[in-house]
Write a structure and sequence with these properties.
The structure holds 4 protein chains of 4 kinds. By secondary structure, chain B is α/β, with parallel strands linked by helices. Chain B is built from 12 helices and 8 strands. The relative contact order of chain B is 0.11. Chain D is 28% helix and 24% strand. In chain D, helix 6 (108-126) runs antiparallel to helix 19 (651-661). Chain D has a 5-stranded parallel sheet with strand order 10-7-6-18-29. A 5-stranded parallel sheet of chain D has the order 20-27-21-22-23. Chain D has a 4-stranded parallel sheet with strand order 2-1-3-4, sandwiched between helices. Classes of the chains: A alpha/beta, B alpha/beta, C mainly alpha, D alpha/beta.
Amino acid sequence: MLKDAAKFEPKIVAFCCNWCSYAGADGAGTARKNYPANVKIIKVPCSCRVNPMFILRAFQRGADGVILCGCHPGDCHYSTGNYYTRRRMALLMSMLNFMGVAEDRFRVEWVSAAEGAKFAEVMNDFVVQITALGENVKLRDLRCKK
Amino acid sequence: MQKIAELMRAKAVELLQSSKAERVLAWRAGEFFYDNAPAAFNDVDACQEIVYNEFCPANLAKYLIEATKQQKKTVVFLKPCDTYGVNQLLKDHRIKREYFYAVGTPCSGMLDVKKIKELGAKAITQITCEDNKVIVETPYGTKEFAKEEVLLDKCMMCKGNEYKIADEELGEKLEPIQFVGDRFAAVKAIEAMSAEERFAFWQEELSKCIRCNACRDICPACSCEQCIFDNQEAPVGGKAAADDVEEQLFHLIRAYHVAGRCVGCGECARVCPQGVKLGLLNLKFIKDINQFYGAYQAGEDATTPSPLVSYKENDPEAEEAVQRRG
Amino acid sequence: MVINNKERAEMLRQLAGTNVSLCIQCGRCSANCPVAWKMDVLPHRFVYELLNGGNVDVLLEAKSPWKCLSCFSCAERCPKGVSPAAIMEAVRLTHIRAQGNNKLNPADLENYDDKMPQQAIVAAFRKFNK
Amino acid sequence: MQKIGVFVCWCGSNIAGTVDVAAVVEAVKKIPDVAYAVDYKYMCSEEGQKIIKDAVEEYGLDRIVVCSCSPRMHEATFRKCAESIGINPYMVEIANIREQCSWVLKDVKVATEKAIQLAKAAIAKVRFNNPLHPGQSQVVKRALVIGGGIAGIQTALDIADAGYKVDILEKEPTIGGKMAQIDKTFPTLDCSACILTPKMVDAACHENITIHTYSDLEAVSGYVGNFDVTIRKKARSVKADICSGCGICTEKCPARKTPSEFDEGLRNRGAIYIPFAQAIPKVPVIDREACLKFKTGKCGVCSIVCPNGAIDYTQEDELITEKYGAIVLATGFELIDLENYGNLGYGRSKNVITSMQLERLTNAAGPTEGHLVCPASGKEPKSVVIVSCVGSRDTSGRGKTYCSKVCCMYNAKHAMYIREKYPNVDVTVFYIDVRTPGKGFDEFQRRAVEEYGVHYVRGQVGKIMSDKEGNLTVFASDLNSGRHLMLNPDLVVLACAVKPAKDARKLASMLTASIDTNDFYVEAHPKLRPVESPTAGIFLSGMCQGPKDIPETVSQAGAAAAKVIGLLAKDKLMTNPCTAKCNEQICSGCLTCTNVCPYGAISGVEKEVVTLNGTREKRVVAVVNEALCQGCGACTVACPSASMDLQGFTNKQILAEVDALC
């Protein structure tokens, strides 16, 4: 079946930590809080497992948005994991901004296991944001000057 | 500088003869007097070939990895800025203190022969420095430049004349370079651009890259047994030909990879045959780290953990940090 | 144009712009109202009738909106963030729109204290132009 | 060649109602290496599991993907199923097509498409799965219960009765908690102290129970079965082993300006004090901030009057360390501050009190010896207004969004015993809803109306004013009659919202227990694992998990104890095999990883390793202690050479998922 060409459906990858955000996503499901199908979740034990390279790889492979969700700082299941995540991702985001690519296509959110509604809210909001930005081509073109 | 070269030769001979060391790391003359290269000197006679002048920019620190592996006590001559790399290698446990003897070697700034040539000097026969003047002899006459015109870019960001690690210092410290401005000026200029301009700038720069890996090979923070770019299991993907992820994102990944460990020596940019301004990526990380997490200088000592393996409970959030940078 | 009760309720809801479905019917709005003792229909009913699509006529015929001081203590003390004051205003506005006469001179506005809440001023206009 | 089996669950209509499961099966069948795919109504059922087992045998499957509910629900089920047929349990991956798909989407076409993509990602990952084998760790046969209220006491007693050692950690000078302050309990109206104090004594006398009062949790490390805990025993300034508990010191202490915490500020206590008569231990404590000896250096009366010489001004905090196999959180609750409810006059008029203050006022051991009087005048009230839902069910930001659950019942209790003891006192309860589910609860509340003539008015109190003489005016609404009311009671009782103890969040951080936005501890599953924290080895008991009354608290305390006993009864625990693993061939020994490991599980070890060019060399490499590693993966990102990887979530596995989804 041909896809409706006029409607842009962004590809969005969400990395979710097992203990808070993945459980939060389950909570959104259990409470039937809808969010668009564009968001696909990859489970990681902790947000600190997410290598910035994973995010770059997702963008490079065609993701239009990447969102990383973890426990609220201070609530990490492994005590300190998300503190490292926060530093790593702040630097990554700042660098993406510096290179003029994809900064606004990447987001870090803290969603606890009890925040199913927030999870859905964040995802809805992110899909709107990414849809407005359109297709992500910049990162792929970074070294392809025409 | 000639005087320092003599002191170096004498010190090398003294240390070898006293059996304090088995070999010496210093610089040897290349084809021209301005392309000196790092070299190892294994005996007293060879030490006579040690040279030192305004064209010895290379940092010898990384060769100490090999010295440590061979467990050979090695004399290494270190300019003040080189000592940061040594500390970083010590912090990364890549070299061991017992296998090297560090001799602090004074430096008044290294010159960039490319700049001299670009300013019109051809068939250079001799270059001498007097205070802040650089006198270039050519068969077509003598040319004179202000030092700041022809200093290496990295020397324009000189960290001063202190040795961060040294068993002894050679002669008197030289005056640090006077032209040091804001080392983040170029980074700030890019930050001030629009997103489109920034993208265009980096697209232009990064498209020049030929993936020769010189930047990686020279870097004192790139000291892994096997580089992630050569490792099929690493999260970046495989070799360039096999995977375009790495091809497109090489510089971003490289700079991120050494963030927090990069001493800001500027060697990566210096050795780039294509003149890619890749040092700016490293400087950007240094600037951000200083701004987000407090001043930090990698290689200042051999113990303080990198900001990327430490945290504060009230660190800024990613979005907040980017905005704070403004 | 003839509109039914349900449509009128919807119109009032839109005019009021406050989310009546949050109401848990605790009555704090009425309890807090400084002029409740003078009102024929208490503030909580203005929320209740809109919430359950009840008798909108009661609200439109009530004297309460003209007693209301627009002091906002009902909204301030609502545990759910509903504003009965906004509904009072919506009822007033409905009347004004129906009459369409504006007898008070807007130029007088300068004479008002600028610390006065905007809605209070507007409410005063409605009242004295009835 | 790999042989992957894909099993798509309908979950009745939960999945199949929104996802075309047959289409998912057809789609995954086309993927290389998928040897078998099938859908079934309930994959988790016995019949469903049999389908998996039969398929493994018939098609020689070596990897399994189940498209079903969240792995948090049934991953363990399907892993066990795989194991029973000889497949390593870690060769199973779950595609969560219920919580992440059918339950959040409405359009069948869209949901089916997403389900296929999630299945593809799981298939991409499972290709790189490797068999993993859990290790074993010892279980320390001792439990720690944090909080010495009824929840903590009951949990400790149940664990101790099963034959295990258990320590109670209480921050106050005595155990007993809030229940000790309460006068009567619903729905029986029996005396709270009479049923609590015997339990306190039981706990104190139990050979398996050690009580640490006036103590804080200082540090926690370790993991389920092996927690290392440091406890700070704060200096009491009284030698507990010598003190006879005679109480002379507390009577003679001249510094009497501190409001008694136990009596909710309705009377003052000395700087040296025993919170209440039945305190355990019955050893006084010096409040150093109030004590003249500590403030000015002069005084020392308590030391002079003590017949045993038990006062010790030089005592210092003591740190003790202990190992525990399990930790129970029973940190209880407190009432909210009323600073956001100035309109109700609390703090401005002494005759507006909290319900906990009323408990003290009616308690025979309380400041008035049980005589109900207005605190301002000291006179018996003629009429009392009780206001429910003060700060509960409030989403405006001033109070708490939840229902505090216990207030409706204790309001009825208060109203009833005021009327019982003082039949001439008029009692009016203002309510939004009366919520009394529970055995005998509604009957209890109805008695208040039917037998005791308490007025229940549907409506709320807006504001309470107090004039110069202290007379109160209550402005309220009566919604059923549509009237605005003005009443002049002598006493107003505010049924304040409950909230978790102040240090709940700090403890959650220390124990890595999950906590919600209201600071209640989060249970592992809201229905099926209500007394366990998601963090293994941490259990929840009582109000710290959510508002509940005493019977519920006691049941939950017993349930938590049963879970602890179940854990301590094991000699060994299987450890999570998803641990970090270092590729020693490429590890440079920089040990950056050791900086980020929260468990100290990585160390540098000098080893002979085979280098990349095949030679042998001795160098330092990072070595992971699998028993300590909890598998967070922080090290994998810190590692500059990517020699550190996380089993079960390897770089390859995650990137395969990324590629499959992009």
